[in-house]
Amino acid sequence: MLVADIHHVSLNVVDTERSLGFYRDVLGLAVLPRPDFGFAGAWLDAGNGRQVHLIETDVVPDDAGQHFAFAVTDIDEVVSALRAAGYRIGDPKSVGGSAARQTFVHDPDGNRVEFNQPA
Question: Which of 4, 94, 86, 11 is nearest to 46 (CA)?
Fold first, then answer.
């Protein structure tokens, strides 16, 4: 296999500071140093060497099912924290009848984010 692992995902956002309110302040991702690319954005530590890169742009693609997923250890705690912060998030559902559970939320720019608690 040519690919060893996922390093980062990049998301288009309209307002970096507003998005940091979700990824940093609610989800707890730490901000990483980021080179000056000549446009606004942020790099965030998603754990285990993985990163989320926010790229500020004028347009965010419509939700057509594309998403990325965070692995979590307590999906009910995640749902409670997001609801307390004012986000609409579904109740966790079984993944294919297994003990694994997942749910989805949209970030402030409409990017779909999955939370997945393995079995």
Answer: 11
